[in-house]
Amino acid sequence: MERLTIQQILDNSSSDVKKNDIEYCLMDCLGKDRVFLHTHKKYLLTFEEQYKFNKYIDKLKESMPLAYVLGSQPFYKHHFIVSPHVLIPRSETEILVEQVIKTGERVYAEKQSVKILDLGAGSGCIGLSIAVDKPEWFVCLSDFKKEITNVIYKNKIKLNVNNCVITVVDWLTAFSQDSFDIIVTNPPYIDKSSCKIEEAVKKFEPSHALYADEYGLSYIKEIIISSKKSLKNNGYLFIENGYDQSKEIEDFLVKNDFKDIEVLLDYNNISRFTKCRHIDG
Prior knowledge:
The chain is of the alpha/beta class and 281 residues long.
């Protein structure tokens, strides 16, 4: 195995791999930042560093997303551990975190307590981001497989979060009545027949976190129906959904007696989230 300098690696970078991804792989292998890469270009990688770097590049050439290669993805204010068992956090989902915190602050001002459920939590990026920002709040994170909740637990330890619990459960089936002030969820919402999914997403990200029946709406409808029981009176439901699903979701919410329905936009001004309130009676 030939050892290379940083300069040689950057100069000989393959067109199959983005230069930015190469730099991230180098930073991870060397335990250094980008400044080091550009001020120590004559640095010769050790055998161990070169071996690790070569493995990373081989995976990138197979179109594996960088987050899975490195096992980490930045989101909101932190880096989250990820694995192929969980969806890679997307930057637009940070809007959901901000909106839940904004609403939670109003609830806390009134009640001096807030109980939040991150439903189908995946990596835990939504619920744990909220829990870190608001240590006086209580956050429950749930998903349906132990392999998924293990990732959440690793992130909980990494971020030193003490105001949360993690549970393995299929959607809302195990939660009692009037349990939460806020439920937030980023469920599978892609139509199984959709042709608009990137190849790398189809190949590497978990299908259970992507696809749903009924044109992508089956899980969202199930959550809306079940949340009526699990939400407290005047409790809030936040959903991330597809860009073309807002009208159908709004109609279904009205049919199930939800009020104050709002469609929230992502960074590209696309309808991406739905906020609503459950009022008993």
